[in-house]
Structure formats: C-alpha cells, structure tokens
Amino acid sequence: QKEVEQNSGPLSVPEGAIASLNCTYSDRGSQSFFWYRQYSGKSPELIMFIYSNGDKEDGRFTAQLNKASQYVSLLIRDSQPSDSATYLCAVGENTNAGKSTFGDGTTLTVKP
Amino acid sequence: KAGVTQTPRYLIKTRGQQVTLSCSPISGHRSVSWYQQTPGQGLQFLFEYFSETQRNKGNFPGRFSGRQFSNSRSEMNVSTLELGDSALYLCASSLASGTGVSYGYTFGSGTRLTVV
Questions:
Q1: Model confidence over A26-81: pLDDT tens digits?
Q2: Whose CB among A44, A69, A102, B114 lies 3.0–4.6 Å from A36's, allowing a Cys bridge?
Q3: How many CB atoms lie within 10 A of CB A19?
C-alpha cells in the first residue's frame, strides 16, 4: 500500500464546474498536508497547505482535512481551462519537517 | 525575491560517468530537499539538508549523495550513472525548522538528466 494515494485520473470537468481531488495517507501522525499544481513541463508549485481538521479556503481553492479518516481533498470552484494540470498531494512526515511524501498525482482537464 | 535556482537545466551523460547538480535555495531558507521525478515512479525523495547536515535520506543507493554549504547552497552527486537514472531532478527549498510542522516547498525548475 502506498503511503499517499490519490484518486486515479484523469479527471475531466467542464469550465465553470467544481473539480474534486482526493487523497488518503497512511501515517496517522502526519501533521502537514499540501497540494501542488504541476503544469506539463514545469516544476510543482505549492497552491494550498492545511494543518488542522476542517476547511481552508483561498480564492477558488478549498482544502479539506479529516485526520480521523486520514483524508485530504482539494476543491476547485469555477474551474478554468488554466486549471488544467496535474495536482499532487503531499504529506509532511510526522517527525521530519523537511521531508514530504507525494502521491502520484491526478491530471485534471478543464474543457471550455 | 529570487526563487530556487538549479543548474544546469539539461545534461546528457554516458553510463558510468558521474554528475553534479547544483541548487541555490531562496534566501533565508535553510532546508534543501532533492527529489527525483520520473513518469513511472512520480516524485521520489532523495535527501534533505538542513544547516549543512543531512537530516533525511530516501531509499536510493549510495551512488546518490549530496551536501550543503554554509550559504545553504546544495549539490547532489550521482556516481557510476545508470540508464535508469535518467530523470528530472528537482531541488526544493523550505523554511522547515527542527521537527513537526513543515511549510511546504518552493521547487526549482529542475535538471533534466539523460543517461545514454
């Protein structure tokens, strides 16, 4: 079993819809959770981080964390074609702040 | 402010050779991590340096090594290159402190290594 698993893609949504990306993790003691966006041919870019249970909103993005279920998600509202990218979920190690474990990513396509 | 700078951007090497990649983190960031990214394996953690000390190490053979200098710049070295080492090598800088909560990475543009 992988340490960080993301819902298999690719995911395709129409422009203006809500895109939902999901991630589960195995280390119950994890404290830091991140979402990165990676455009084709580019390096990953941090778009959201969340540390506490509940929701965190930043513009069109909402990260949701449920530590009891070991589940973290990213919602993208009013999806735009420019949101088309691979989204990587990453979990910071419990005792090693400098190490994150990444999921394999979910590729999102937003169709105009 | 300046981002994370990785050099070179592209490298082509022959099997058996060695290679050194360089990374300059964001000013003030003391943690530098290195990742290997391939289509089949995704992002795999190589190691992390904090204040010139290797704090974390991933599951890579000893051919992969690194170091960090007093100005936080970091290098990674791969000796006796194999075809399977062809990948994008990403450097990530972070404000990560001692333990506990981390703050996420800022990645460099990466070094694309091709071993022939």
A1: 988 888 899 999 999 999 999 999 998 999 999 999 999 999 999 999 999 999 99
A2: A44
A3: 23
In this structure, what token pair is assigned to residue B65? 């090594």
A51 touches chain B (CB under 8 A): yes
Q: Give the tokens for residue A26.
A: 């195995």
Kind and range of the H or E element at A63?
strand A61-66
Task: Give contacts of B108 with chain A, Cβ < 8 Å.
Answer: 43
Count each helix (H run) and each strand (E run) in chain B, helices first.
Answer: 0, 11
User: Could you give the maximum distance between any two Cα atoms of chain A, in Å?
Assistant: 44
**Contacts across the A-B interface (CB distance below 8 Å):** 73
B29, B27, B34, B13: which is closest to B76 by C-alpha? B34
